[in-house]
Amino acid sequence: MLDKLLILLSVASLSYGVLSDDGYDVIIVGSGPGGLVAAEYLTRQSNVSVLLLEAGNVSLQVTGGTDVLSYSASEGWTQFDIPGEFDNVIYNSENEAYRVDWIDSPSIWLGKLLGGCSSINAAQYFRTPNDYVAKAAWPFSVSQVNSGFDAVEKLSPYTETPSADGEYYLLEAFNIVSAALKDVGYVLKTLNDEEARNSKNGTFGHPPYSIKDGLRDSPAKTFYSAMEDRENFKLLVNSKVLYIQQTQGQATGIVYQSEAGEAIEVSLAEGGVVMVAAGALSTPQVLMQSGIGPKDQLEALATVGSFDGVGDQDTWVINEAVGKAVFDAAVVYASFTHSGMVPFLNTKRPKDAVAQYVEDRTGAWAIPGPVMTAYEMMEINGREYEFQTTVLPHGFGDEYETDEAYTLALLINNPESRDSISVDGNGFNVETNGSWYLSTPNDVAAMTAYASKMISAMTNAGSIFVGDNSGNGVDISSWVSENAGSVSHHFGGSCYTAADDANDAARCADGSFRVVGTQNVYISDASLMKEGTVNP
Asked: Where is the Glucose-methanol-choline oxidoreductase N-terminal domain positioned along the sequence (predicted)?
């Protein structure tokens, strides 16, 4: 999920015509945080007409969502409103209607509903460090980026205490891990504070959440509510965009599939633009299906013959970077036991916690899972790695119900490993080479070094590493290799941007987020991120 401020910056320099019966000034493909923030910002200008299309349905209660649970029916809270339901929403066969169904991979669970993944994720909100601008050749200045964050937070503030009473809960794992981290020099910080986020190495803190008064407070609630009644805004749900109508990079409209299965055309007004915000794995597919992308992939789509938007070769935009350089944060999960740990199992819906929550939106059920975030930086073979630990108040996988267990999710936020998206028969393969995770020697060495340090820190402070089944010690390198490959859903890079003066010939989008080779097609999601940096 892209940091929400980036969309505010990307659209600031665009110009539009007045409202017109001949089409929309802006058509936005996808209602994730990128699409919603862009739509809200643009519709503040009453003479700009915006159409936002979402392939899925409504989500949170304020959007008209009605998918309530038996215990929340009297309040009207949907399963997406309730933070404690996070672990019960994804990878749940009963929720397949809310899952992106055009990505054929059982391990990938991306949201297809208003708000996208921000309506189903762990609701964490992190500001990027200032040096990300230089590291990623980001086309906006540090002051612009920080001003964007400030603007986002006026509509969508964050909190360390998601419970409506402002109290901390589920502190057992936090206290155990914090004691261990302090022993190796870590310092407690308020993670989004300017000093903390710009000096992250060896710090930890309570996760900042997009939760207010115990309910999810994500863009589908905050930004959508701010614009839903504006006359220049229109939302279409259950409307999957099939392709952009374009010739040699000049877009004139889009074609979407309605809930009834009809293909419907929507036109752009003169001077209008299309903004693609379908997510880092889906945006490249929309572009390729529209005749924008690598030549070999467009030829493959044309050969299939069922992709109407590809068009004739003389209409194509050859952009070899579309769908390339895709990354996800690498993660391994290390579970431990400790005599002072009391696990909290969200999938079991603890009755007392649920009852307390229904009463006044307080307690452990107002927390979506993570109870601590910690950061470390290491240089491995001349490359700086940014690591993150996310602490969970229970075991992981086969150890989920283990007594006295907690888990460290150990992440590389800026991995070297990359993969690509390619045509595969009548669809797309989003992991063409199977190389997202620890596919380079540097990444392997980095994760091994970090895991070794964190596991040692925990065991030296009295925890027992569950991965050491023999009791004789564990080979961390082998353990990392055996446990790598989990999807973290922190995707990016699939149409990355770079500043115009960065001389980056491999960039997919220019310094205004416009897809290279087009005149009026822009990107508005995590596809733009050249490197990972924070938990999105």
From this structure: 279-293
